[in-house]
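Box 3.1 — From sequence to structure: TetR/AcrR family transcriptional regulator
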Amino acid sequence: MPQQPAPTRQRILDAADRLMRTIGLARVTTKEIARASDCSEALLYKHFASKEEIFVAVLQERLPALGPLLAELTADAGGRDTGQCLIDIARQAALFYEASTQIGASLFAEPALLERHRAALRELDAGPHKPVLALAEYLRRERTAGRIRTDADPDAAAAMLLGACHLRAFLAHFTGQPPPQSAEAFAAGLAGTLMAGLARQ
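Predicted structure (token representation):
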């Protein structure tokens, strides 16, 4: 029995993911994505309103799931150990930035395109600041619940954890060398160090 072709939306995201990784978000066009997914550009626009919407869908559906984990913790951490939660977040963030940094880096070479991309992400209520805000909100709740120090700064702690994960990915892509530690080892060390400063005295 012949194998059925993948649904159009799935083919579009598969092609977009591949092209954004190889030629960069700034250079890839919806026409190229449509051609690579074996559909017309008109059909592509029936599934996605813009290239930016495709980009957000790729981040949400093709990369390690950072957003859903943060959303779950922000909604209800369920009394889980804060240190373990931070390890889980750091591991997912390390993997997410490893996969996504290369995709968006080319935007910074074209200021006009970057501004258009920013405007589109604002309309979609998306952007790189969202994980930082979500993690800060989780830490704020942990502080209110008395599980971390009352004088802890959730915004600074969120920026430190996610910033370190992003820097790890940037350095690996820039140098062309794999990170010196696995995502698991890096996450455990990073979360442990952060918790040493956040833990109640």
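Summary of the box: DSSP finds ten helices and no strands in the chain.
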